[in-house]
């Protein structure tokens, strides 16, 4: 299910369809940051890049 662009959910835009989403994902928007020369916006990116 895609989020409504007029009424986006709180937190990360992908938390409703991400299998790794946590309570933090539901409440906080992740900041865009550089990780391993990639731009990421995920609270858990370190778990997947390495």
From TrEMBL:
Database matches in InterPro entries: Oligopep_ABC_C, P-loop_NTPase
One Gene Ontology term, aspect cellular component: plasma membrane
Residues that span the membrane, as ranges: none
UniProt-annotated location(s): Cell inner membrane
NCBIfam families hit by this protein: oligo_HPY
Transport among keywords: yes
Domain of life the protein comes from: Bacteria
GO molecular function: ATP binding
One biological process term in Gene Ontology: peptide transport
Species: Aquicoccus porphyridii
Broad class of where this protein is predominantly found: membrane
Pfam families: oligo_HPY
Membrane topology: Peripheral membrane protein
Keyword Lipid metabolism: no
Annotated ranges, domain Oligopeptide/dipeptide ABC transporter C-terminal: 2-25
Protein name: Dipeptide ABC transporter ATP-binding protein
Keywords: ATP-binding, Nucleotide-binding, Transport
């Amino acid at each position: 299910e895609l989020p409504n662009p007029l009424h986006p959910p709180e937190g990360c835009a992908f938390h409703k369809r991400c299998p790794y989403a946590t309570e933090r994902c539901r409440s906080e928007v992740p900041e865009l940051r550089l990780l391993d020369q990639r731009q990421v916006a995920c609270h858990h990116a370190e778990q997947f890049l390495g």
